[in-house]
Amino acid sequence: MREEFWDTTPHYGGQKEIWDALRAAAEADLSLAQPIVDSAGIIVSNSDMTLCYDERGAKYELPKYVLSEPTNLIWEE
Question: Name one Pfam family in it (predicted).
Answer without folding.
Answer: UBD
